[in-house]
Structures are given as C-alpha cells and as structure tokens.
Inverse folding.
C-alpha cells in the first residue's frame, strides 16, 4: 500500500480546483467537539436512561464515555495518519479496499448525521412553538422545521469559519443550561433535601436482568456521547491536525463526560426515578423540583432550541464534508466534490444533504405521535457503533502501512477492546435494543445498497 503524505497547502493556480480553507485552530476545534457531543441526547434522554436502570443512571453514561474514549483513540491514530476529509469511510476503504463496504460505511455515517439533524430540527420547531406559546398544528411545525434547515443550509454555504463561530455561541448556550441544572441541584443537595440512596439503586424492567438493563441503557446513552467522530471530517480545514487533534479530542470528551455524569447524578438525587422517567422534559423537572420559584419552565424551551440547533448545524457540517470527501476519493459521484470558487465550501454536498434532510423531516412528521427522539437516537447510535467497530479493525489492518507521517498511536489493546465493546452494543441479544431501531437501520442500509448498485452500474457503463 502506498504511503500517504500530508495534504499540500492550497496553491494559487487558476487551473487547480480550490482547496478547503484551514480555519480551525485548537479553540474552535475544542468547541466544535464539545458542541457536537452536547445537545439533544442529554436534554431528552436522561429520564429514559433512568427508566432502564433506576437511580444509577450515571453508570450508563460513564460506560458510554469509556467506550467512546477507547474508540476515539483509534480515530486519533487514523486522522493524524491520514488528515483528510471523509473520516470512517476513508479509513475503511484504505484498510479493506471493498467499494461496497466503503459505500455502506459512508452511507451509514451520513444517515446518522442527517437523521440526527432532522430530529433536531423537528425538536427545534416544537420548542419554538412551546417557548412562544404558539398553538399550532403538525403542518406548521413541519414548515418551521424545514425553514430551520434552510437557515442551516445558508450558514453552511457561507463557510465553515462562520459555521463554527455560530457553533461557539450555541455551545455556550447549551452548556449554560446543563451547568444551570448542576448548580441549582447542588444548592438543593447542600440543603439536605436530596436522596442520595437513589443514586446507587438499580430498578430494572421486569423482563431484563441488571446486566442487560445496563447494556440497553448504555446503548441509549451512547447517543448522547456521539459527535466526537464528526470532527475528523474537518481534518482538511484544521491547522496542524497531527498536533491539535489528540489534545482537543481528549479534552472535549473529558469535559462532556464529567458534565453528563454530574447531570445524571443530580437528576436522580433530586427527582424520584419514576417521575424523572415519565417526564418529557426531565431536566426542567429537576430544576422545578430543586427551585420551584425559578422560571425554568419558560427558559428551558429556548435553551433546548439552541442545543438542538447546534446539533443540527454540526451534523449537517459533518454530512456534507463526508460526501465531499467521498466524491473527492471517487467513491461517490464527482460532482459532490465541487468547491465554491470564492467561499471555498463544498456547496454541492451541502445542498444534496439538505435535500435529504428535508425529505426525512417530512417523512418523520407524517406521524407526530412516533417516539422520534428515542427511535432515531437509538438508530443513530446503532449505525455509528457498527461503523466504530470497523474503524477499530481498520486501525489494526492499516498498521502495515508504514507511513512516515507523524501521528498518534493507539497501542495494541485498545483497538481490539474497542471492536469488542462496539459489537456488544450493536448485537440484539446483548444490547437490549428494541426491534424498531434495527428496522429503521435495515431500511436505511437497503436504500444504501440500491444507491451503490446504481453508482456501480453507472461506472461500468462509462468504462464500456
């Protein structure tokens, strides 16, 4: 296998296609990672995780953090070894060289981003209506969600620098909401009103053992940890990725992991598990219990709006860069690799992913009673955990590529451990996932196979 050298800096030659602009330093990259991990998951799933394991809701978040940290080491070795856009699909393609496998990985990661962003846009519309006290129907909510996606499209077309700067503001808002939960809960706990006995109490569904319940809760909690992998798709727009990525990845994961564990401990110490699990806005319930006079009920919908908006923005950034990278590698149609001559953004990939998101939002909105967050969140983690297993395997395979590029090394044990843990959380008999998540993932992958077949047939006709 040929050695890979770092991408050359952009050359001001009118005959060359414009390269992506390197605008992300350590600060912006760290905020990108934190902002991508924080968001819809922790705001919406804390109660459902508690419903699986009881008061020990912190444990699934801690386990999910460990699994994410192990896999992040594999990502760091690969992104510093091959600092190019496309992420997991690029690594799997280099390791196994199977176009159908590469396409499915690309499609799975892209779908996870678009699905997450679509769910976030729907949540944004619902929170906007709640925050302003609008009594509107499903059709108006759908139009708000689609309008929000057009706004995300405009921001992404404007440029990654502008997108990431907006991410800084949105990250600060969503982080402030979580810190608000922790601080107000801390005052409640300091007053001796909390029940810490619930924090170590396991209350599992009657049809599940403690171990299976923890596995099911971890599979759900992992949705709150995903996002760290999106940053590798920004490698071509990051300054000195070999030096910056490891420090910022570990720092971002550490910060979010600590916040998640603290929020989950505070939640179950302040609110009884049954009440928490039944609440559609669990963090609002926590603050209302800890400080009944605090106007969090009016404030939280707007904080949630910013949180899910941030998730949608970063997921659409990831999806468009993924398609751009695959178009550049020749795995997907080459028009997806087009870069705007002046803005130097992958405009074709941005428009394409936005169209897909619009179709998905419309489809999901046909049944407003569907448990969108839990099903799509679980499906997102299911798809990504399967991809993570392949990424961990790719690290081992690509060790034979003795590149001279300075890069991070994940060691021998972590990639093996990452493969095993990711597969454990994917398989139905060990993860405790509901069947609906596998059905959604199966339909998405079937669509991917059809599209791959069309792409392969087009290439074959072009050669004849």
């Amino acid at each position: 296998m040929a050695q890979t050298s770092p991408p050359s800096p952009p050359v001001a030659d009118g005959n060359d296609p414009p390269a992506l602009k390197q605008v992300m330093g350590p600060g912006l990259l760290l905020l990108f990672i934190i902002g991508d991990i924080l968001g819809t998951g922790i705001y919406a799933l804390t109660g459902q995780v508690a419903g699986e394991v009881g008061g020990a809701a912190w444990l699934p978040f801690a386990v999910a953090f460990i699994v994410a940290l192990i896999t992040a080491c594999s990502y760091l070795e690969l992104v510093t070894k091959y600092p190019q856009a496309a992420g997991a699909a690029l690594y799997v393609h280099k390791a196994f060289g199977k176009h159908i496998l590469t396409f499915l990985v690309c499609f799975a990661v892209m779908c996870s981003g678009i699905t997450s962003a679509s769910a976030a846009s729907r949540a944004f519309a619902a929170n906007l209506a709640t925050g302003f006290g609008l009594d509107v129907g499903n059709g108006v909510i759908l139009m708000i969600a689609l309008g929000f996606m057009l706004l995300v499209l405009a921001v992404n077309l404007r440029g990654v620098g502008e997108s990431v700067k907006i991410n800084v503001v949105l990250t600060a808002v969503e982080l402030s909401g979580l810190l608000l939960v922790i601080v107000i809960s801390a005052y409640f706990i300091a007053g001796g009103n909390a029940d810490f006995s619930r924090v170590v109490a396991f209350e599992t569904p009657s049809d599940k053992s403690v171990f299976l319940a923890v596995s099911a809760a971890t599979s759900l909690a992992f949705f709150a940890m995903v996002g760290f992998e999106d940053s590798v798709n920004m490698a071509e727009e990051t300054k000195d990725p070999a030096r910056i990525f490891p420090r910022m990845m570990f720092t971002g994961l550490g910060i979010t992991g600590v916040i998640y564990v603290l929020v989950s401990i505070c939640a179950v110490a302040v609110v009884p598990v049954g009440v928490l699990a039944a609440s559609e806005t669990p963090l609002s319930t926590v603050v209302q219990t800890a400080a009944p006079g605090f106007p969090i009920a009016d404030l939280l919908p707007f904080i949630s709006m910013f949180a899910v908006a941030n998730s949608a923005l970063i997921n659409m950034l990831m999806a468009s860069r993924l398609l751009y990278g695959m178009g550049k590698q020749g795995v997907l149609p080459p028009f997806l690799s087009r870069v705007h001559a002046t803005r130097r953004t992958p405009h074709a990939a941005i428009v394409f992913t936005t169209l897909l998101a619009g179709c998905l939002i419309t489809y999901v909105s046909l049944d407003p009673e569907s448990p969108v967050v839990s099903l799509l969140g679980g499906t997102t983690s299911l798809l990504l955990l399967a991809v993570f297993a392949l990424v961990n395997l790719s690290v081992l395979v690509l060790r034979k590529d003795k590149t001279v590029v300075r890069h991070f090394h994940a060691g021998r044990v972590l990639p093996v451990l990452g493969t095993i843990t990711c597969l454990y959380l994917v398989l139905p008999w060990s993860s405790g996932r509901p069947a609906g998540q596998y059905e959604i993932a199966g339909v998405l992958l079937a669509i991917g196979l059809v599209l791959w077949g069309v792409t392969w047939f087009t290439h074959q006709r072009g050669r004849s």
